[in-house]
Amino acid sequence: MSISTDLIQHYPWLPSLEKVYSNLASMDPLDFIVQTFTKYSDGELEKRISKLFKAAFENLERIKDYKADELNIYLYLIVKILLYILENKPISNRIANLYSKHTYTELLLEKNDANLYDICQDLKILIEYYPKPLEFGIIADKDQREVLITNFKIHYIDYLKLAANLRDEYRKLVHNPLYKGYIFIERKSLIRLLQEYVRRKLIGENQNNNLALSKFRKKVLEIKELKELYENILHEWELKKEEFEYSFEVGFQDGADLSKSFPPCIREILIKIQEGQNIIHIERLYLVFFLHALNYPNDYIINLFSKLPDFDQKKTEYQVNFAKKKGYTPHSCSTLKSYNLCKADKYKDEICLQGYYSKKLETQKPLTHPLFYVQLKQYRSYKNQTNKIIEPLK
Asked: CA-CA distance, 57 to 327, in Å (whole number)?
């Protein structure tokens, strides 16, 4: 059977993706990645992928501003590559949960049952559709009776395959009406099975060839755009997995000086800028991502760079706006150390060197991200202010 391109763009996990977009399926992965970032060089691809991973890390159930366009195909394939090279089961699980829950909601909203039928056919699921709903059971609860109706029935073998990881008692075969090898199934329950299919497809399998994975990762990370995405996802994950106990909302506010809470790595870069020194590319990126994370206005950031000897107004405006569009998280402490940007020793900074005390674990924990530094400084400043003893007027 043939399936519409619109349906594949809406649900890129469908098997017909390989047929309809056969040019992509047959392409070398490295060539595909390069061509994809060339095709979508406006930053929209990175923006959508970053938002997807952030939503997954927040355990959300919908992909905000989801667009069923051609870019969605490329996004899905790049996400699959990222999950492969990340080789991180918790991250894969979160992406799979988000994608599958989003799919569940999207399928529920489908007004045309023919699309649902086509999807099942594409998945090689033995299913039958009845234009006129059939009554297949009654739920009796005290004085209430609910008649069960459906347009669908599914072959019991496919039902068992799809429901294998769903542990609800009512899903067991013995609790479902079986007729000539087919189970009558409500539309909502059928969509739940499709949700599970999507979840399992994105989780993937354990890698058996670690050497092949390492070689592939090394090659694809030579592609600048993918490397940036890869590192940003790891930085986001570092932020999320850290259960920071001194949580404090921080961000740019007109008239407030947040710079006193900046970590030494940022202060060092700002000192260089104030002195009119040139700063290297990674310092520029880190500073922009850091200030964007704290919601500093683009004009403020551009004005900072105006002090640099090689300042170019138009070029800086474009790069700062483009960086904001990508939505990247600033580098983690471990990454900053690898770039020799960590200045904890130079400034003998207590927080950077000693970390913070975890009330939950009753032990000292190392700092893992510069944004935690800002949070902790702001939290302590706030507590100092609220704990001050107010002297009575004399």
From this structure: 15
d(CA 334, CA 180): 61
What are the average pLDDT values for consecutive 10-residue runs of the chain, which has 394 residues?
88 94 91 96 94 91 92 96 93 93 94 92 93 76 73 92 81 80 91 93 73 93 95 87 57 75 95 90 93 91 90 91 84 92 95 85 86 87 63 39
- Domain spans, the chain: 5-108+205-237, 113-200, 248-385
SS3 152: strand
329, amino acid identity = T
Backbone region of residue 381 per phi and psi (left: phi > 0; alpha: psi in -120 to 50; beta: other values) = alpha
Tell me the two tokens of residue 67. Answer: 């667009």
What predicted TM-score, i.e. pTM, was given to this entire model?
0.75
In angstroms, rounded to a whole number, what is the distance separating the alpha carbons of residues 220 and 384? 48
Find, among 284, 96, 273, the residue nearest to 195 by Cα.
96
Torsion from C-alpha of 241, 246, 249, 251, nearest 10 degrees: -90
